[in-house]
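Tokens in:
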């Protein structure tokens, strides 16, 4: 990384957004609706096109223009690659809020490197789909210094309905993996139950309503149940993205000498659905792992 640049002039209610996938786009729309000026950047510039008529402004380097920048990318190595590309814009007292579901050790190492430049880093993965984020219903997990967290108080209320500061940098990445483990298994269990109901002659639609009113209930039933029944795989969160997270869950567990048998089976189910061509569809398409064909 180069010598640290001088910070830009203060920009009230101006933030940067790096990464315009499903989640980055949803957050950008939220901030625009709440009166923020948003400077956006993505590796493929065409992803910015739908946001420009809404008031977002393309920036060749949001790091150079904004004191607070939100990052929403695929993995921590991708974050590192993008920051290297835009490194000329890094400046002291800048705050980077990384919503990427990353590997905890990598997040901690990145935070240490940025701290040497006076840049403050928060790992802040979001628990919830892009649609829940767009509606302000998601949960935000935040790891990092309390003072830095407090400096972003106005942002948290826009990013999610619930915000949990969970400790030092890396803590949020760990908690997100814990959350995704349970969330993914809930989806897989619901998918299996609906297939099972159909197999034994129970109307899956009726089964879903009963499940919602029983002790078996989970929020997944509200968000994904109808989509599974209707084979509506319009994307809220991609199946391959969750498969990436499950592999990371198993990797980090293995590093600690722990076996996660349910997550291992879940990985196989997701891989089966991916091989059937559902990787870029919504993660509720995991139900297709049980079907004989992908039509």
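Residues out:
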């Amino acid at each position: 990384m180069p010598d640290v640049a001088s910070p830009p002039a203060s920009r009230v209610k101006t933030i940067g957004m790096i990464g315009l996938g499903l989640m980055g786009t949803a957050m950008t729309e939220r901030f625009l609706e709440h009166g923020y000026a948003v400077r956006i950047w993505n590796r493929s510039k065409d992803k910015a096109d739908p946001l420009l008529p809404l008031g977002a402004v393309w920036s060749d380097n949001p790091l150079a223009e904004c004191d607070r920048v939100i990052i929403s990318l695929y993995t921590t190595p991708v974050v590192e690659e993008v920051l290297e590309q835009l490194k000329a814009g890094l400046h002291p007292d800048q705050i980077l809020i990384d919503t990427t579901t990353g590997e905890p050790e990598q997040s901690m190492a990145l935070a240490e490197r940025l701290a040497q430049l006076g840049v403050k880093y928060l790992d802040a993965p979001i628990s919830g789909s892009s649609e829940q984020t767009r509606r302000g219903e998601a949960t935000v997990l935040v790891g990092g210094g309390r003072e830095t967290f407090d400096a972003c108080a106005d942002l948290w209320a826009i990013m999610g309905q619930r915000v949990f500061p969970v400790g030092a940098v890396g803590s949020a990445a760990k908690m997100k993996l814990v959350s995704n483990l349970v969330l993914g298994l809930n989806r897989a269990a619901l998918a299996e139950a609906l297939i099972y109901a159909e197999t034994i002659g129970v109307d899956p639609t009726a089964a879903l309503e009963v499940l919602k009113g029983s002790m078996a209930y989970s929020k997944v039933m509200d968000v994904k149940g109808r989509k599974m029944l209707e084979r509506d795989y319009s994307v809220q969160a991609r199946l391959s993205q969750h498969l990436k997270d499950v592999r990371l869950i198993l990797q980090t567990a293995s590093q600690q000498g722990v076996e996660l048998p349910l997550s291992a089976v879940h990985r196989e189910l997701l891989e089966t659905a991916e091989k059937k061509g559902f990787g870029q569809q919504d993660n509720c398409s995991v139900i297709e792992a049980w079907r004989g064909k992908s039509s």
